[in-house]
Specification:
Structural class: alpha/beta
Radius of gyration: 19 Å
Number of strands: 11
Strand order of the largest sheet: 5-4-3-9-10-11
Shape: elongated
Strand content: 15-25%
Length: 263
């Protein structure tokens, strides 16, 4: 495989060299990481939005319309989106970089909790779009495991309610029209603006404001590594561009980093 005049192995070695030399490395992950665990990409042909109406996933419609809430919960119960998928090689490689002391944090657009399951420290994973493994009461803020609430949705003709206060339950992921979690966004922005190397993995960088993170990193002088099967608007700014699957590339990069560190 030849990319930007270098072999795949040459690009892997270059990315690993940047990581080893850096003091602060940030990983930024998108749907291309989750799809390798069998989780469908919402926006791709045949994805969730080709089967369900995105209008049902606006926060305004969800809050105001009981029929919309019921459809959302039934969709989640029937689609298996709440089922626990398993981490793939990319998740494990990212967690390994952290264990080696070569990854400061993970900023993710994904809502599947797989980084944490793979071993990334929960306090170092910043979920810009929330976490679909949980449901949250909009009144008292109590959180429930999604599988528990999805089971209730399968069993009943109405949208499930909070067992503590009777309030409205919502998947703890960001809906259209809803602001991103303020603390996660603030920390993600800070780490992006203060890193030496920023690794984009499995994201086309077209969803904002999440896609601002690599821009912040570049503006601060960080080197950019992009691992993605398709092109992104920032390809021309990348020091390393790997047009390959996340699992393959990140596994090889982690192996090379480990070898360079003599571990």
């Amino acid at each position: 495989m030849e990319l930007k005049g270098q072999s795949f192995e040459g690009l892997v070695e270059r990315a690993a060299g940047l990581i080893v030399a850096a003091k602060r490395v940030v990983a930024f992950t998108g749907a291309g990481v989750s799809t390798e665990s069998g989780i469908p990409d919402f926006r791709s042909p045949g994805g969730i939005w080709s089967k369900y109406d995105p209008e049902d996933f606006t926060i305004q419609s969800f809050v105001r319309r009981p029929d919309t809430r019921l459809r959302v919960w039934q969709m989640l119960a029937e689609s298996g989106l709440s089922a626990r998928a398993q981490p793939n090689a990319a998740h494990y490689a990212i967690a390994e970089l952290e264990r080696m002391g070569k990854l400061t944090c993970v900023i993710t657009q994904n809502v599947d909790n797989l980084h944490q399951i793979a071993g990334s420290s929960p306090d170092r994973v910043f979920e810009l779009h929330g976490n679909m493994q949980w449901a949250r009461c909009l009144d008292c803020e109590k959180r429930y495991p999604m599988e528990e609430i999805a089971e209730k949705a399968r069993a009943g003709p109405e949208a499930p309610l909070c067992t503590v206060c009777g309030g409205m339950l919502k998947p703890d992921a960001v809906f259209f029209g809803e602001t991103l979690p303020s603390e996660a966004l603030m920390k993600a922005t800070s780490y992006s603006r203060n890193c030496d190397v920023f690794i984009v993995i499995g994201s086309t960088l077209v969803v904002y404001p999440a896609a601002l993170m690599p821009q912040y990193a570049r503006e601060a002088g960080a080197k950019l590594v992009i691992v993605n099967l398709s092109s992104t608007p920032m390809d021309h700014q990348a020091s390393v561009l790997l047009r390959s699957k996340a699992g393959e590339s990140m596994s090889r990069i982690a192996e090379s980093v480990k070898a360079k560190l003599g571990r």
